[in-house]
Amino acid sequence: MSDPSDIDELAAEYVLGTLDAGERAMVAARRQREPVLDAAIIAWQRRLAPLDDFAPAVEPPSGIFGAIEQKIVARGSRASGMLAGGAGSTIITLQRRLRRWRISAIAAGAAAASLVVAFAARELLRPETAQNYVAVFQKDDASPAFVMTVDLTARTLSIRRVAAPVPARKTYQLWIASDKLGPGPHSLGLIEDQNAGLQKAIAKLDPTIVQSALFGVSLEPAGGSPTGKPTGPVFHTRLIPTSE
Amino acid sequence: MTYRDAPLQPTSKINSADLAVLLRRVAGRDRDAFSTLYGATSAKLYGIVLRILRRRDLSDEVLQEIYVKIWDRAGDFDASRGSPVTWMATIARNQALDEARRVQSVSIEDLPAGFDIVCDAPVALDAILASEEGRRLHNCLQRLEPRRRDLVVQAYMEGASREELGRRFGAPVPTIKTWLHRSLAQLKECLES
User: CA–CA separation, A30 vs B178, rounded Å?
Assistant: First the structure.
């Protein structure tokens, strides 16, 4: 593979996309230490880049950017100055708010915030565990908000409405979506009780799937989605470990 | 899809200099700039990803990974190595291709009923002709034998594997490989002449 024409062929096929998974990984690793291969790849990217204009632009679904921001936040990028606010600061604001709720709930022993208390207590008892997760669903300050906690040791999930008016004859429904669960979102149940929210055992779900799954809350007709799939607007989110 | 399909496609040209400024701000952890960058580029990248993966569920997932990478690597963007759009499109293509190779055992025909498949949209020839580089590539593609041209364009745009191309073009994989190498060499020679 050290022949210059072989290197150029490899670079061309890498950029074209016709290599198999193993070959792609091999090229990606080799270019890190082979400047000639790296330069050949960049030259082919430039040659073929105009073909990118061929694919018609398609507007992505509205929930994607929120999910991206959550991923960035979840990986601890907060340390690098992300608390500075900005358009995407809603999640951080909610995390701060969540932290305040925990503190005030502990201080006041407020029964009304029972879920938050339980959540904080678990965290205090097992500060090192990465089995507890939290997820916040909210698009902006004017939208409904939900807080979900997942305990992968007890295999339970709780979700609670914190700022979501329920229109008449409507209900919120919780969904999970993952490649590994098959196509489309699957219902996890209705969030009907205003005070208790939804508590659910998730013993049947593989914890590794739960950790990486996409969760959604949609507004549905009373009794839940008639089609088995979300019919109303959906808020998406992913789990954030509470140990972070 | 063939390269000959050439319907009108409105092109939204994003200013390269603006994108470079946005990327610099994103490298400085500017969330507003990241949001603007996403607004300006996500439809283009999503179009590229959908074309390769065809399944919306996979594409939604992959688009998220792409922007997390763009956030992480914005500081690596080097204008001397290509335009901001090419840099982002390359991240998008690589992520989509890796995913396509990972799931290629699931062919479109095997998917369960009701799965959201993006139908073949016609390609946008006038978009490619809008730039100098695009016109040169187009002229050189036109000099390839039509089937070889389709082979190269389908491989690039749809992320078709050699096996898939073999099925579509009725040739064994080693033959596809030879055709690809010859077509690409011819293309390179034409572009550099």
Answer: 23
